[in-house]
Structure formats: structure tokens, C-alpha cells
Amino acid sequence: MSLNLQTHTEHFTNPLYLESGRILEPYDIAYETYGEINEDKSNVVVVCHALTGSHHAAGTYESESKAGWWDGFIGSGKAIDTDKYFVICSNVIGSCFGSTGPMSLQHLHHEHYRYKFPVVTIKDMVKAQRILFDRLDIHRVHAIVGGSMGGMQALQFAIHYPNFADKIISLAATHATQPWAIAFNKVAQESILKDPDFKQGYYDPEVIAEQGLSGMAVGRMAGHISFLSHESMREKFGREYKRTDGLYELFGKFQVESYLEYNGYNFTKWFDPLAYLYITKAINIFDLARGFDSLEEAMKKVKSELHLISFRNDVLFKNFEMKELDDILEEVGNKNHSYIDIDSDYGHDAFLVELDKFEEYVKKALGD
Fold it and tell me: Other CB atoms closer than 10 Å to residue 286's CB: what's the count?
């Protein structure tokens, strides 16, 4: 069967009340769907994307050669099987791929929001998605699945919309962002802010798209280090040197250096720097316990069947952070959850790369 990839944008004129007390109105949400919805709408699976992801999770547009970011996982006969499920993935508010974000035009003013855009939280992103699903007349879903920031969204759904999903699967996430991850985000944020071409937020987006932003590239290199691991870098690059460079040339490069450069500079041409600042802010202040007396109180709200997946060598969100959630669910008497630590040396990005290590587990969790 075909993937039946469809892309849409919904426009909302009702105000979105944010966790900060500020309001966003009007706003757009871009989203993609795959597969066919069944008559009683019981086969809906929501997929939540990570920091630099988008609603384009699977399949290929006519104009591109690169498939969606979880294409190996979503599709006919894959872990999230589009022959069975109707899959929805929406671009979070604050991002730069069609949903309203800091470089969107303000209503009536026809100027970009830039710093006038309010700080949004993971909870706000989830609230906006919930409003989108209401618009689509979807009031309960079979499952919500996400990794990294997507896993944070999945956990937030579990607490704030406890009756919305039958099953929730959160991969490579945490219950509250820890200093290690915040520190990597700080390097990226400072690298952007201190780049003269950033122009203190008043850059021309077309110029950035064409030329990139070197400060952001440097910040992204730091990010890439946190997504991999000591072992995966050694396996991937070893001490291989770039064939065309001399060992004793000052700017001769190891393969790992070329990799970081390529990914860092390339990234800045397709991801907006202000969106990066806003989304890393949302990740930094993520804390499931906010608004509750304790994390235990927050986790008592969970009613969905909850599956937690960590990766042994994830240095960004350590596996014990997921284990802490598992322990708390045990403490509060939640009998409807599971936790697995995947034996992986790949690092944080394992949830995007080593699909074969957990796809059977996800299929089983989905009830296949």
C-alpha cells in the first residue's frame, strides 16, 4: 500500500493561552498525515518531532531526495505501520517549517515577530497540538510516540491530557532537562548571539538561507558531539584523516572534523537561528513537575499505558533519567507502564538510527 503522504496547514484565530501568561494569536500549525483514518477513528497514532525535526516525518516530496526524519520507522509494514494506522505529525509552534514561530509575520503588522514572539514551552506545543486534533475531530488516539524533544511532548501529553491516548511511547527523553544538556544548548545559543551576521536577531532570513550563519554552525557542532558517543565516534571515524589533507598542515582535518563542519554549516542554511534559540529555551525549561508539588504528584496523573525507552550510551539524556521515571511510576503504584534500556553504543541519536534495536518493542507496545 502507498504511504498516502499529505501535507496541510490549519489556521487558528482563537487565542492560544501560553504557560507564561502570554497569548499567541492568530497562529498556524503545519502537519502531515500518512495512511487512512478508519471509521471510528480508533487507529490514530501521533508522532512528535525533536528539536530540529518537523512535521515531515516520513516519505519523500517530489522536490527532494531525502526522506522524512523517521522514514525507516513509519510506513507500510514498518514499526508504525501505515497499513494499520493513520499517523499525524505536526510541526511544533516556535519552529520554522510552517507553524507559527519567531520569523512568522505578526498579524496586521506584516513584520516578523523576532523577539516579540513569546517564549513557548513543551506544554504549550502539546496544547496547540491538542487544539489541532480537536479541529480535526480527533478526541482520542491509539498512541503517541516521540523521541528526544518528541519524547518530552509524549510525556507531557500523558500528564496534561491523561484521557487522550491509550498508549504513550517516549524514547531518549527525560522528566526534566539536566545541566549537562542545558550546557550544550548554552554553547549553541552563545555562538548564535555573538555572530555579527546574526545582527542581534534582525538578520535577513534570505541571506542566512543562502550563506548560513557560522556562529550557529559552531554551536551545532557542539550539539552533534552530544548526540553521538565516544564509542560511536570511534567506530564511525576512528583516527581517519582526510585523504587530500597533509598531516602536518595546520588546517588539515580528521574525518570527524570534516563531519562536524559539513553538518554544522549545512544545518544553518535550512534551520532558522531564532527558532533554534526559542526551541532550545523550551527544552531547557522543560520539567514535568512544574505546576505540581513533586514529580510523584505529576506522575499520578498518568492513565495511558506508558512505555519508556532509554539508550545505554545516550550522553545527552542519560538512561538513568528514564529509570527515575520508571521508579517513580512504581512508587505511585502505576501498574500500566514498562521501561527498557536499549543496549546501544550509538548515543542519543540511536532513536533515529538504530531502529532495528527497538522496532519490535514498539510494535508490541502498539499492540501489533
Answer: 22
Model pTM score: 0.97
* Residues whose CB falls within 8 Å of the CB of residue 252, separated by 6 or more in sequence, listed in order: 241, 242, 245, 246
Q: Which of 312, 310, 347, 304 is nearest to 329 (CA)?
A: 304
pLDDT by residue, tens only, the chain of 368 residues: 679 999 999 999 999 999 999 999 999 999 999 999 999 999 999 999 999 999 999 999 988 888 999 999 999 999 999 999 999 999 999 999 999 999 999 988 789 999 999 999 999 999 999 999 999 999 999 999 999 999 999 999 999 999 999 999 999 999 999 999 999 999 999 999 999 999 999 999 999 999 999 999 999 999 999 999 999 999 999 999 998 999 999 999 999 999 999 999 999 999 999 999 999 999 999 999 999 999 999 999 999 999 999 999 999 999 999 999 999 999 999 999 999 999 999 999 999 999 999 999 999 999 96
Q: Are residues 167 and 63 in the same domain?
A: yes
Specify the number of domains making up the chain: 2
Same domain, 312 and 264: no
Q: State the Cα angle at 158 between 95 and 172, rounded to 5°.
A: 60
User: Which residue among the candidates 54, 90, 104, 148 is catalytic per the annotation?
Assistant: 148
Active-site residue flag, 348:
yes
Residue 33 inside a domain? The answer is: yes
Look at residue 147 and tell me if it is in a domain.
Answer: yes
Contact yes or no for 170/307 (Cβ under 8 A): yes
Catalytic residue among 314, 326, 337, 344: 314
The enclosing domain of 213 has a CATH number of: 1.10.1740.110
Q: Give residue 62's domain range.
A: 6-177+286-366
Residue at a domain's end among 281, 297, 328:
281
- Catalytic residue, chosen from 142, 175, 307, 348, is 348
Same domain, 40 and 71: yes
Angle at 127 between CA 338 and CA 160, to 5 degrees: 40
Question: Is residue 111 assigned to a domain?
Answer: yes
Q: Is 314 a catalytic residue?
A: yes
Domain end residue (candidates: 281, 304, 330): 281
